[in-house]
Specification:
Shape: globular
Oligomer: single chain
Radius of gyration: 22 Å
Strand content: 15-25%
CATH topology of the largest domain: Adenylosuccinate Synthetase, Chain A, domain 1
Strand order of the largest sheet: 7-5-2-9-1-10-14-18-19
CATH superfamily of the largest domain: Adenylosuccinate Synthetase, subunit A, domain 1
Distance between the termini: 17 Å
Number of domains: 3
Number of strands: 19
CATH class of the largest domain: Alpha Beta
Helix content: 25-40%
Largest sheet: 9 strands, mixed
Length: about 425
């Protein structure tokens, strides 16, 4: 039986624990392909007590013999990527052109993107909560057809020409609007062409390299962020700047010729969010402190404390539909250990009226909760579904019934082996 090509997609507002799931599933695939976003993402994996935090490189790089890709839908900060490569190499992880390949069509994040991101966020009356990594301005340049791509970085003449054109347009804006002196062409060109010399061996034409072997490959498409940060389907304008849903996996990965067989949607056993925007089940007080401390809910990229709330099944069902999810992955079930009662959002109300369809605006929506009993003891020692307390199994079953989809995997701890599979 041929192995499946899988997409792993976050179903909430990111930070669902996708990195660990991808690390686990990558055992059984050949290629792990990142298809959108940039170093605004943070995937954390713990192997033999050592923690690895990935911002650009797919977490499948920890598995020997796998090939990891940065697809054309990814925006790359060369400094961050080189730093990540060197950090992994120092930790004894093999990273080289044979197992990390970069699309020549990836757009580059430059210093003026980061500056513009910071200045625009500072100017807003209503903050979006951007990571200020330059992601949005880079995607703007891509769509505006003035972006600089990885293929330009390895051609000095072309790079300097396109960079000069950008600085002619951007420096006057920095100077006149924001009082910033802008950037000097020669210094910036020298710095980035040096990055280009380092990264050139990693650049690969995916169509030429992978198309002839497409039928033999098994690919895992790695999503970053979560469904409700999608630039179209998320809680706009409090979203990221790329399409994070499963439909973009093949296009953004640079492997549009690879068939997608299954979509694994990843959700926490509760809900978190970083940044601004609506959040119907958001908590404050002792329960917020409980989730932050027990779940270590601080951003892997920014260190910002995450907003926390009960599991929102209305939101999850919408994400399942948008991504055509075939199997569910539930993470951080162990964080709920010790709670006497657990609340689960199973409906919305607005202005005292029950909503019978998903609202076009989440602001002003109030959650309706169903109360579930907690469970005695903990689940972190479980290594099969049978090991889970009856109340934890009931919690999972209720989620399955509401979403009309099977929970295939459950994570009960940060270690690699703390993933339970339900066949």
């Amino acid at each position: 039986m041929r192995k499946r090509n899988l997409a792993v997609i976050g179903l909430q507002w990111g930070d669902e624990g996708k990195g660990k799931i991808i690390d686990s599933l990558s055992r059984d695939v050949d290629v792990i392909a990142r298809f959108q976003g940039g170093n605004n993402a943070g995937h954390t994996v713990v192997v033999r007590g050592e923690k690895f935090v990935f911002h650009l490189i797919p977490s499948g790089i920890l598995r020997p013999g796998k090939t990891c890709l940065l697809g054309n839908g990814v925006v790359v900060d060369p400094r961050v990527l080189i730093s990540e490569i060197e950090s992994l190499q120092k930790a004894g992880i093999s990273v080289g052109p044979e197992n990390l390949k970069i699309s020549p069509f990836c757009h580059l994040i430059l210093p003026y993107h980061r500056l513009m991101d910071t200045l625009r966020e500072g100017d807003r009356d209503k903050k979006i909560g951007t990571t200020k990594r330059g992601i949005g301005p880079c995607y703007v340049d891509k769509v505006n057809r003035c972006g600089i791509r990885m293929r330009d970085l390895i051609c000095p003449e072309r790079f300097s020409q396109v960079l000069a054109e950008n600085l002619r347009q951007k420096n006057p804006i920095f100077e006149k609007v924001y009082g910033h002196e802008g950037y000097e062409l020669d210094a910036l060109s020298r710095e980035y062409l040096e990055y280009g010399r380092t990264l050139e061996p990693f650049i690969c034409d995916f169509t030429e390299y992978f198309f002839p072997r497409r039928e033999k490959l098994c690919v895992l498409f790695e999503g970053a962020q979560g469904t409700f940060l999608d630039v179209d389907y998320g809680t706009y304008p409090f979203v990221t700047s790329s399409s994070v849903i499963a439909a973009n996996a093949r296009l953004g990965s640079g492997l549009p010729f690879v068939r997608l067989d299954a979509v694994l949607g990843v959700a926490k056993a509760y809900t978190t969010r970083v940044g601004e925007g609506p959040f119907p089940t958001e908590l404050s007080g002792k329960f917020l402190d409980f989730f932050r401390q027990r779940g270590v809910e601080f951003g892997a990229t920014t260190g910002r404390p995450r907003r926390c709330g009960w599991l929102d099944l209305v939101l999850l069902k919408r994400a399942v539909q948008i991504n055509h999810v075939t199997e569910l992955v539930l993470t951080k079930l162990d964080v709920l250990d010790g709670l006497e009662k657990i609340q689960v959002c199973t409906g919305y109300r607005r202005e005292g009226k029950k909503l019978h369809s998903f609202p076009d605006e989440l602001r002003g929506v109030l959650p309706q909760y169903t109360e579930m009993p907690g469970w005695p003891g903990g689940v972190s020692g479980a290594r099969s579904f049978r090991d889970l307390p009856a109340q934890a199994r009931d919690y999972i079953r209720m989620i399955e019934e509401y979403l009309e989809i099977k929970v295939r995997y459950v994570s009960v701890g940060e270690k690699r082996e703390a993933i339970l599979s339900q066949e």
